[in-house]
Structure to design on (736 residues):
C-alpha cells in the first residue's frame, strides 16, 4: 500500500479544500486513484485525467497533472482522441453515473467495444448530485429523487454488465465503503491493456441519502455495505433478491488486444 | 517531350545568384531553385539526394535524378558551375473531386487524425482519409456519432496531432456544443461542413448554402469563429490547408463550408509537394507555475500538448490562466472578451475576398461557393452584353470581411448578393452599411445559373440598357 505522502505531487494543494459536500465519496475515490498512480509510478506528465460534467467533473481541479474536462457525457469520446494521438499517455476518465450512463452511454458501449486503452471510473452516487438530486439511469427502481417523488418507475441500468458484454477487457465494481478493494481494482484497471471500467458506488448524503431517508454520511456508508454482496453470492440469488442488492467484484478480466494494437497490425498487413 | 525552361537567374554573380527556374511540362510543374554551393547547402542537398548518392555527387546527376523521377521530363539544360540544384517545390496537377481535394489539403497541412461519421455528401473525405492516414502513422477512426467525432478530434489535437472531421448539416448541428467547447478551450481543429439542402434532414445529396449562420452562431454563447468558403476544387485544397494554419495561428476551430456541388465537382488541382504549414509552438520558461492560458501579445496562448512537461489543464468552464475553473465575473468577462478579440482584431490576416471585374463597376455581385462561379460567368457574359459587373468572391465568410465589402461596393449603383439561401450573407452586407444591397436567393437545390444573374441585374439596373 502506497503512503499518502506519495500522492502529494499529484495534488493541486492550493485548490484544496475541494467543493464536494461533506460525506461525499468523490474525495476518497480521487485519493485512491492518485494512490494507484503512485503505486504504478506513473509520471505526472504522462497522466491525463479526463472528466465530464457534474460533481465528478470537478476532480480535475484538484490534480497537478494534465487534466481535461469536456462536454457533458463525452469524456470517453474526447479521451479516445487523446489516447490515439499519443498512446504513451495513461488516460483516465472519471465520470458520474448520469454523465456516463445517460447522456454518454453510447460512448461507454463503443469505447468498450473498441477495447480502447483507457481506464474509465464511474463514481455512481445513484442520482444527479450537481443539479439537485434528479434520478439517473442507475437510480434503483422505487427510489425517491427530486424528479421521482413517488419512486422511480424504471429499474436501474447495470453499466458494468453493458461494458463487459460490449467487450471491455476489465470490468469491476466496488464501493467507497470497500475502498481498499476499490483501489486494487483501480490498479488492475490501470494495468489493463485495453478498456477497463471500475464502477464505485459512492454516498450522496445531500440528495439521494436525504430523499431516501438513509441517514447521515456514515449511515450511508453502512447502507452501501449492507446493500452490496460479492458477485458469486449475487449470482446464486433469485431475480427478486437480486433487485435488492448490488453485486461487488470483478465481472470481466481478459486480454483481448486493444484497438490501437489491432489497428496498427492491420496497417502492416496492408 | 517538350520542356519550357523559364529562367530568372541572374548570371552576373553566379555565386550569389539566388533564383528560380521553372520547368513547365504538360502534366507537372517543377520549381527549381539555384543556390550557392556552400557547406550548408550541400547538407540540405544531401537531404534530398537519392539513396546511394553522396552530397558531393555532381549537381548534374542530382538534377537529372529529380527530373528522371518525375514523369514526362527527359532533359534539362544546366547551369552555372558553382551552383547546386535543389528541388524546392514540385507541383503536379491532379484531376480531383472537391471532397478529395479537401482531404488531401488536410493531409498536406499535416493532419494525421480524422474522426468522423458517415453522412452524405461529405463521406468521400472520410473514405479517403481512411486510406491515406494509416500508412502515414496517422489515425482514421469512425466514431459512434458526430458528437463523438468532434470530441475525438479535439482530444487528438490536444495530444499534439493536427486533426479534422467532415460532416454535413445534421452532423454539423450535433457538433455545435463541442465547437463551442473547442473555442472556449482554444483547441485548434478543422471542421468541414459539406452543406446540403434544407433544414432537418433536408435532401441528403443535394446542395445548399444555408449553413452560413449555423457556422457563425450555431453554438451557444458569445464567441467569434473563422469560416472559409471554397468556390473551386483548387480552393477546397488551398483553403483546407489555410484552415489548418489558421487553426494553429489562432488556436481555435476553423470551419470549411463547402457546398455539395463544389464537393462533388471535378476539376484540375495543382498540388505543390511542399505547402506552407504553421506548426504548433511549444511553451518555454519555467515548468513550475506555468500558466497554459496566459495569452501572448497577440492574445493567443501557447499551450503545451498532453504528455508535455508543461502541464495542460483544459476545461470548457470559465477558467483562469492556470486552466483552473473559476466563477469569478472578471475572469469570465475577460476570457470571453479575449476569445473574441483574438480573432476579430486580427481578421486582416484571414484570406481576403477576391475581386474580379472592371475598376468602377455599375454592379457588384457578392457571392461565394458554387454561386460565385455562376456570378463570375455572368459577369463575363454580361460584359459582352455591355453590362459592367464586378464580382466579389468571398474566401473568408466569418469574421465577415466588412471592410472589403464596403470598399468594393462604395460606388456601385447596384449590389447583389447571390447565394443559395434566404439571404444569410445579404444580412451581413446590409449590416456592413450597404443597405441598398439586394439578394438573389434560391433555396430549391437548383444552382443559381449565370443567365439568371444576368436577367436579375438587367431588370434592376438602369445602367443596363445597352
Amino acid at each position: 500500500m502506497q503512503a499518502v505522502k506519495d500522492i502529494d505531487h499529484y495534488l493541486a494543494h492550493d485548490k484544496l479544500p475541494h467543493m464536494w459536500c461533506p460525506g461525499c465519496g468523490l474525495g476518497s475515490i480521487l485519493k485512491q486513484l492518485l494512490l494507484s498512480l503512485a503505486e504504478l509510478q506513473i509520471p505526472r506528465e504522462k497522466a491525463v485525467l479526463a472528466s465530464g460534467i457534474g460533481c465528478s467533473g470537478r476532480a480535475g481541479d484538484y490534480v497537478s497533472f494534465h487534466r481535461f474536462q469536456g462536454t457533458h457525457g463525452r469524456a470517453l469520446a474526447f479521451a479516445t482522441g487523446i489516447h490515439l494521438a499519443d498512446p504513451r499517455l495513461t488516460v483516465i476518465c472519471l465520470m458520474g453515473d448520469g454523465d456516463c450512463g445517460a447522456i454518454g452511454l453510447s460512448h461507454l458501449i463503443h469505447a468498450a467495444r473498441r477495447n480502447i486503452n483507457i481506464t474509465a471510473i464511474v463514481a455512481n452516487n445513484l442520482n444527479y448530485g450537481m443539479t439537485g438530486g434528479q434520478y439517473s439511469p442507475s437510480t434503483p427502481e422505487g427510489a425517491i429523487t427530486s424528479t421521482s417523488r413517488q419512486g422511480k418507475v424504471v429499474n436501474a441500468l447495470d453499466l458494468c454488465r453493458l461494458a463487459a458484454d460490449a467487450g471491455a477487457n476489465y470490468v469491476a465494481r466496488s464501493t467507497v465503503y470497500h475502498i481498499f478493494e476499490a483501489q486494487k481494482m483501480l490498479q488492475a484497471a490501470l494495468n489493463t491493456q485495453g478498456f477497463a471500467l471500475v464502477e464505485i458506488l459512492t454516498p450522496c448524503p445531500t440528495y439521494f441519502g436525504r430523499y431516501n431517508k438513509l441517514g447521515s454520511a456514515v449511515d450511508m456508508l453502512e447502507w452501501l455495505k449492507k446493500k452490496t454482496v460479492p458477485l458469486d453470492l449475487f449470482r446464486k440469488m433469485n431475480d427478486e433478491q437480486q433487485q435488492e442488492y448490488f453485486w461487488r467484484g470483478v465481472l470481466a478480466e481478459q486480454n483481448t488486444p486493444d484497438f490501437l494494437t489491432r489497428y496498427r497490425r492491420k496497417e502492416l498487413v496492408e | 517531350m517538350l520542356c519550357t525552361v523559364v529562367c530568372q537567374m541572374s548570371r552576373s554573380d553566379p555565386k550569389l545568384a539566388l533564383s528560380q527556374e521553372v520547368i513547365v511540362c504538360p502534366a507537372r510543374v517543377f520549381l527549381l531553385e539555384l543556390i550557392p554551393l556552400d557547406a550548408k547547402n550541400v547538407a540540405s542537398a544531401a537531404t534530398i539526394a537519392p539513396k546511394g548518392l553522396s552530397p558531393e555527387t555532381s549537381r548534374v546527376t542530382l538534377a537529372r535524378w529529380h527530373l528522371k523521377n518525375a514523369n514526362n521530363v527527359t532533359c534539362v539544360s544546366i547551369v552555372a558551375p558553382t551552383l547546386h540544384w535543389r528541388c524546392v517545390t514540385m507541383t503536379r496537377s491532379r484531376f480531383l473531386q472537391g471532397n478529395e481535394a479537401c482531404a488531401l489539403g488536410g493531409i498536406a497541412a499535416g493532419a494525421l487524425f480524422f474522426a468522423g461519421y458517415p453522412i452524405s455528401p461529405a463521406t468521400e473525405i472520410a473514405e479517403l482519409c481512411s486510406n491515406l492516414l494509416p500508412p502515414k502513422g496517422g489515425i482514421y477512426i469512425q466514431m459512434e456519432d458526430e458528437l463523438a467525432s468532434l470530441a475525438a478530434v479535439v482530444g487528438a489535437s490536444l495530444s499534439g496531432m493536427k486533426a479534422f472531421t467532415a460532416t454535413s448539416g445534421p452532423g454539423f448541428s450535433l457538433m455545435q456544443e463541442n465547437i463551442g467547447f473547442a473555442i472556449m478551450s482554444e483547441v485548434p481543429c478543422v471542421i468541414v461542413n459539406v452543406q446540403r439542402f434544407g433544414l432537418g434532414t433536408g435532401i441528403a445529396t443535394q446542395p445548399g448554402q444555408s449553413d452560413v449562420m449555423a457556422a457563425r452562431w450555431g453554438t451557444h454563447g458569445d464567441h467569434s469563429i473563422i469560416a472559409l468558403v471554397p468556390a473551386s476544387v483548387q480552393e477546397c485544397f488551398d483553403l483546407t490547408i489555410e484552415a489548418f494554419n489558421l487553426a494553429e495561428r489562432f488556436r481555435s476551430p476553423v470551419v470549411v463550408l463547402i457546398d455539395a456541388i463544389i464537393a462533388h465537382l471535378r476539376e484540375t488541382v495543382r498540388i505543390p509537394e511542399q505547402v506552407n504549414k504553421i506548426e504548433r509552438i511549444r511553451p518555454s520558461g519555467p515548468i513550475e507555475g506555468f500558466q497554459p492560458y496566459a495569452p501572448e501579445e497577440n492574445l493567443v496562448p501557447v499551450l503545451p500538448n498532453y504528455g508535455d512537461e508543461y502541464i495542460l489543464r483544459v476545461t470548457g468552464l470559465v477558467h483562469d490562466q492556470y486552466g483552473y475553473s473559476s466563477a469569478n465575473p472578471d475572469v469570465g468577462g475577460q476570457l470571453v472578451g479575449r476569445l473574441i478579440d483574438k480573432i476579430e482584431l486580427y481578421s486582416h490576416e484571414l484570406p481576403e475576398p477576391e475581386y474580379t471585374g472592371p475598376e468602377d463597376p455599375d454592379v457588384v455581385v457578392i457571392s461565394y461557393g458554387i454561386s460565385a462561379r455562376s456570378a463570375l460567368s455572368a459577369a463575363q457574359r454580361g460584359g459582352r452584353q455591355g453590362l459592367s459587373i464586378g464580382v466579389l468572391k468571398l474566401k473568408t465568410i466569418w469574421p465577415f470581411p466588412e471592410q472589403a465589402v464596403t470598399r468594393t461596393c462604395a460606388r456601385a449603383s447596384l449590389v447583389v448578393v447571390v447565394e443559395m439561401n434566404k439571404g444569410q450573407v445579404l444580412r451581413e452586407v446590409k449590416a456592413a452599411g450597404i443597405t441598398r444591397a439586394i439578394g438573389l436567393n434560391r433555396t430549391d437545390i437548383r444552382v443559381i445559373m449565370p443567365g439568371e444573374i444576368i436577367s436579375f441585374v438587367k431588370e434592376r439596373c438602369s445602367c443596363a440598357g445597352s
Remarks:
- The longest strand of chain A covers residues 246-253.
